[in-house]
Design goal:
Shape of chain C: elongated
Helix content of chain A: 55-70%
Chains: A alpha+beta (about 525), B mainly alpha (about 110), C mainly alpha (about 100)
Order of helices and strands of chain A: HHHEEEHHHHHHHHEEEEHHHHHHHHH
Largest sheet of chain C: none
Shape of chain A: globular
Largest sheet of chain A: 7 strands, antiparallel
Oligomer: heterotrimer
Distance between the termini of chain C: 12 Å
Strand content of chain C: under 5%
Order of helices and strands of chain C: HHHH
Number of helices of chain C: 4
Number of strands of chain C: 0
Strand content of chain A: 5-15%
Distance between the termini of chain A: 26 Å
Helix content of chain C: over 70%
């Protein structure tokens, strides 16, 4: 019995040790990924909020496709690829990502163009302020504002760390069911441990799912090796898996692109009225041009809808996706679960709340680390001070940065050139600037003030919105503008949450009195979390 | 007698190298363990996933996808085990060994016909 | 507004909490079931929540919705339990009847 017992204990010890290190190394980036990812569940709503002048009527997919192609033909007919997102019930505009032809002389591939947003009825550029919208949070979430491919690799590294942290966390948690509902307040380290455990365990299905599916989302980039084992040409895998040739090369022979409308109709007919969601046109105006139309899977878990590929030069059908087998369905469902596009309003808010729980799990983990090692009266070691400052810089200052992004949208003049990039800069200047300022303050003040400023920034949003646009809080109530109303409500709720955090941080007593310290020392025998090294 | 001199020689060489890089023996061991867990773990997962994809007797695209999907679980598990198993030689042997073995088999078998 | 699965799950988790000696509130509630009874009720209510979710959201989405709403219900319950434990359990009863009303509406 004792041998088995010690073996189990040693497993818990080693898993606790690695869990701590994984959390330390990836914690701050993961916090940022969780927070911006959670915001991304409302990506189209944020974009709509950031273009308050826009009031677009719904348009049939065929019409939207035709106007989009007409616009691209007029502006940049020699591109390598056009990725066209047709409007849907949450996004009223057409969104296009164009990839210019690679310059054979240039050493590096050209960057993808910025997002092109069009009025779906006319194909003209939107008559609204230029902005990245919710797309900014979404892209940051998995690219971390770093150049391709480093951002995605770093995000992937943090994601695998997260997966290992979840596995080790579950193994090391001793009384996972007995402590299921335990949450004790005002007990210092023990409270942080409880909050970390509760936020982790109660939403464990979500956290495990979101982490694993996040890795699956970029699976071809993170794990292409099995493809190399089974396919001589990478492109054949795409053809098998998704029914289209990805990254086909241009032939060099020009040929006018056939009208897109009939292709959209044909696809819709083949899907018995199914709605197209995206159109990928590869090498337009070339004889090897392909037009792939992907079906909207908005009501299904599998994010990878069916697709049909037509020849751009002749209009003939080239290929179509075959019904996916178990593995492809699994991957598609995993992607669908991560994106949550299938979710209706109730489920979407559920996703949002669970995402916030995940953010809390990561944040409380880092806070627990410092709480455990804080010794009142003793000089903190360098690592401790570093972690403490990084905690403040991330947990207290990133929310302010995100609010600044939204505030900048209202404050920067609508017609200003390059305002979209300015909004993005506002987020990082505010985030890092505030983080730098907090270094000048003692730790406790930094927490209180940082959180208070973040709260103020969020609280300011409904006010600034009311002043700078015609879709303020009272107008929204009067006109039943649900989106703007709930946005204001959410901003105030977030402000309240951050304000509550700031208030609680101000309540913390710096050094407990003598009597309590003795009792606390007796209680802090580290039974739950053991450090080995 | 010769074996001991050889191992003594290696140990002296290793110690002077450690001193040169200002890393204690424990530091070297930990670095080696981290490298094996992170880089080796990824390599092992990639190689074993490729082997699985190559061998699974189902449709080619399905086998490939299953290998890819399961690879992350393999990576995370190997990485965790690398820090649980006390003997560093065992960690290195299992992780690098399975990498070489799996990759070797896959390359020897060639691409799926 | 398909919140019934979440409300029933909340009641289920409250019931499961009552089956654990540690979380039984003191002073005792007006109606305090035996631990075994509470555990059975809890699991039963979770099953009911699943069925309700499958009915409301349809197959696979129903499973996702059930898991998601149960997790959120758990978080809310734990927060309530640590703040005002009696209110947490009262909310469970109220929530259960609201859910029943919504289901039949």
């Amino acid at each position: 019995m004792s041998k088995a017992f010690s073996g189990e204990m040693r497993l818990r010890q080693s898993m606790a040790w690695i869990h701590t290190w994984l959390g330390l190394l990836a914690g701050w980036i993961l916090f940022a990924m969780f927070l911006t990812g959670t915001a991304s569940y409302f990506r189209p709503e944020i974009t709509q909020w950031m273009q308050p002048e826009l009031r677009l009527a719904p348009v049939a997919p065929r019409r939207a496709a035709e106007t989009a192609v007409a616009h691209m033909q007029a502006t940049s007919p020699d591109d390598q690829q056009w990725f066209i997102y047709l409007p849907n019930d949450r996004t009223p505009e057409t969104r296009i990502f164009a990839m210019p032809k690679p310059d054979p002389g240039a050493k590096e591939p050209k960057n993808r163009s910025a997002e092109i947003k069009l009025d779906p009825a006319t194909g003209a550029a939107l008559n609204a302020r230029d902005t990245c919208g919710g797309e900014h949070f979404y892209r940051f979430h998995f690219q971390l504002q770093l150049p391709h491919p480093w951002g995605r690799w770093l995000a992937g590294l943090c994601a695998i760390f997260m997966l290992a942290a979840i596995l080790s966390g579950v193994i090391t948690h001793k009384r996972i069911f007995a402590d299921f509902f335990t949450l004790r307040w005002k007990k210092g380290q023990r409270s942080w441990l409880d909050t970390h455990n509760v936020s982790a365990v109660l939403a464990l299905p979500f956290h495990a799912m979101i982490t694993y599916t996040g890795l699956i989302a970029l699976i071809v980039m993170y794990m292409p090796w099995p493809i190399a084992a089974n396919y001589a040409k990478h492109a054949d895998f795409y053809a098998d898996a998704y029914g289209r040739e990805a990254d086909g090369d241009a032939s060099g022979k020009p040929a006018a692109l056939k009208p897109i409308g009939p292709m959209v109709d044909a696809a819709s007919r083949q899907w018995q009225g199914g709605r197209p969601r995206t159109i990928v046109i590869r090498n337009p105006n070339d004889s090897a041009a392909t037009v792939t139309i992907l079906r909207s899977g908005a009501d299904r878990l599998n994010a990878r809808g069916e697709s049909i590929t037509y020849s751009g030069a002749t209009g003939a059908k080239l290929s179509q996706s075959s019904p996916p087998g178990a593995a492809l369905t699994t991957a598609g469902v995993m992607l669908g679960l991560h994106l949550g596009n299938f979710a209706g309003p109730v489920l979407r808010w559920t996703y949002f709340l669970l995402g916030l729980t995940g953010t809390a799990m990561v944040g409380t983990g880092s806070l627990l680390w410092t709480a455990k090692r804080r010794k009142p009266g003793a000089k903190p070691f360098f690592g401790f001070r570093l972690v403490e400052r990084l905690n403040i810089a991330t947990i207290a200052c990133l929310p302010a940065g995100m609010a600044a992004f939204l505030l900048a949208n209202r404050l920067i003049p609508a017609g200003l050139e390059g305002r979209a990039a300015l909004e993005v800069s506002a987020m990082f200047w505010t985030w890092f600037g505030l983080a730098a300022l907090t270094l000048l303050r003692p730790v406790r003040c930094a927490w209180v003030e940082g959180l208070a400023l973040s709260a103020a920034a969020f609280a300011a949003l409904p006010l600034v919105n009311m002043v700078m646009t015609d879709r303020g809080l009272f107008t929204s109530i009067a006109s039943g503008d649900w989106l703007f109303l709930s946005f204001d409500g959410a901003m105030l709720a977030i402000a309240a949450l951050l304000g509550f955090g700031s208030w609680r941080a101000a309540q913390v007593r710096v050094a407990p009195p003598r009597r309590q310290r003795k009792a606390a020392a007796a209680e802090f025998r580290p039974k739950e979390l053991l450090d080995v090294a | 007698m010769r074996k001991r001199t050889l191992s003594q020689g290696i140990s002296v060489f290793g110690q002077s190298l450690s001193q040169f890089f200002l890393l204690s023996r424990r530091g070297w061991r930990m670095s080696a363990r981290c490298f094996t867990a992170l880089v080796g773990g990824y390599a092992a997962a990639a190689a074993m996933a490729s082997l699985l994809a190559r061998l699974l007797p189902i449709a080619r695209v399905e086998a490939t996808m299953w290998g890819m999907i399961l690879s992350f679980l393999m990576f995370a598990s190997l990485g965790l085990w690398a820090f649980h198993e006390r003997r560093l030689w065992k960690v290195a042997l299992v992780i690098w060994g399975s990498t070489l073995l799996s990759a070797g088999i896959v390359m020897a078998m060639g691409i799926r016909p | 507004m398909s919140l019934e699965p979440g409300l029933i799950s909340y009641a289920a988790l409250a019931s499961l909490a009552l089956s654990v000696m540690k979380h039984r509130p003191t002073p005792a509630l007006a109606f305090m079931p035996l631990p075994t009874m509470a555990r059975v009720t809890g699991w039963l209510l979770l099953a009911v929540a699943l069925l309700l979710s499958l009915w409301r959201f349809g197959g696979p989405q129903g499973v996702v919705a059930w898991i998601g709403q149960t997790c959120v219900a758990g978080a809310v319950f734990v927060l309530m339990l640590s703040w005002r434990s009696h209110a947490a359990f009262t909310l469970a009863v109220v929530g259960f009847f609201v859910a029943v009303a919504m289901a039949f509406a």
